[in-house]
Write a structure and sequence with these properties.
Layout: H1 36-63, H2 66-71, H3 74-177
Amino acid sequence: MLTVPPPSVYEVGGPSTTVAEGPSFPHSASALPVPPFVIEGLSTRLGNLENGHGQLVQRVNQVSDAKVVASVTIGELGPRVYVVEGQVQVMVSQMAHTADRWEQVGAQVEQGQQTAARRDETVAELTHQVQALQIDVQQRDTQIHQLQTTVTEMSSRESTLMRCILGLERRITAMERRPPRPQ
C-alpha cells in the first residue's frame, strides 16, 4: 500500500492564509466606547477562522483527489476523517463564539448609540434653558438700567425740590422777620 504524506504547502486555489488586518465589520462602531483592540482582535479571529476553513477545504480537496483516492485504503482514511471532523468541530465552536461576541459588541454599539441620543437630547434641553436664562438676564439688566436712570432723575428732582424748599424757608423766615403791614 502506498501512502501519500500531506504536502506542506497547498497550491489549490483558495483564500489567503495571511492574517486579516483592521476591522472588517459591516457596522460602524464609532459611537461605541469599545476599545479598538477588541474589534481588531475579533476581525483577526474571524479572518483566521476563514483561513482555517479554506485550509480545511484544501485538505478535503487533496483527500478527494483521484490520485490519492486510488492509493489510499478505507482504513487509512478513517483517522484522517476523524482529524478533519475534529478540526471542523473546533472551527464551528470558534465561529459560534465569534458570532456570540459579535452580537455582544452589536448590543454594546446599540446601547452606546441610545446613550448618545439621550445625551444629545439632554444637551439640547439644557441649551434651550441657558438661552432662556440669558434672555431673562438681559431683561433684568435693562430693568436695572431703567431703575438707575429713574433714581438719577429722582435725585436730580430731589435736589431741585430741596433748593426750592430752602428758598421757601428763607422767604418764610424773611417774611416772619418783617414787621406786619398795615391793613
